[in-house]
Design goal:
With 161 residues, this protein is α+β, with helices and mostly antiparallel strands. The chain has four helices and seven strands; from the N terminus they run βααβββαβαββ. The chain has a single domain, classed as Aminopeptidase, CATH 3.40.630.30. Strands 1-2-3-4-5-7-6 form a seven-stranded mixed beta sheet, sandwiched between helices. A hairpin with a 2-residue loop joins strand 2 and strand 3.
Length: 161
């Protein structure tokens, strides 16, 4: 793989984001271009893309609310062929650094209770299960609400973007 780059998403990336999301999630829960167009342009959201010379292969979106110093990780996607290579970790760190710069101290997310890789990933990154959200993804598909407190000083994350 050529060198990994992390960059902010542009409006022109919306189609690619939807394509990656369809490769990572079931059709009925994958986001569409309308949602991605909203997050990429929203002033209260950050969208980071991981790419190499062959193009994007992962991304993360977090939406934040300055008043409550809180944010939600909307989605984090790494294409199947690129997993377990710290791409997801790098994207999550990029979100955490930019959220901390906005004064955000709490980050939460919802994750399917049967998504073992994601549960392991988020536990690895210090998220704790706070609540069971029954039928969150449709009848019979529950989610956990997970949450972590962001460290005030993330300037030593080693990330440059
Ligand atoms: C969850 C996801 C983003 C992880 O991305 P990734 O780039 O593979 O993760 P990383 O390589 O950064 O993993 C960091 C650590 O998380 C844990 N982890 C990640 N994937 C794991 C898996 N499949 N099984 C067990 N632990 C896992 C490990 O502790 C790993 O460290 P290690 O490789 O040194 O053991 C990726 O699997 C994915 O895109 N899944 C489909 C979409 C999804 O479910 N997104 C989250 C839903 S909210």
């Amino acid at each position: 793989m050529t060198k990994l780059r992390i960059r902010a998403a542009l409006s022109s990336d919306v189609g690619l984001l939807a394509e990656i999301d369809r490769a990572c999630f079931r059709e009925d829960i994958a986001f569409g271009e309308i949602e991605f167009a909203h997050y990429v342009t929203a002033p209260c959201a950050v969208t980071w893309i991981a790419e190499h010379d062959g193009g994007p292969f992962g991304f993360a979106i977090a939406a934040f609310e300055r008043l409550h110093r809180a944010a939600t990780l909307i989605t984090l996607d790494v294409l199947p062929g690129y997993r377990r290579a710290r791409i997801g970790s790098t994207l999550l760190s990029a979100c955490e650094v930019s959220l901390a710069k906005q004064g955000i101290s709490e980050l939460d997310l919802q994750v399917d209770t049967s998504n073992a890789p994601a549960l392991a990933f988020y536990a690895h990154h210090g998220f704790a299960r706070r609540r069971l959200l029954r039928n969150y993804y449709g009848i019979g598909t529950d989610a956990y609400l997970m949450q972590k407190t962001l460290e005030g000083d993330q300037t030593n994350s080693g990330l440059s973007f």
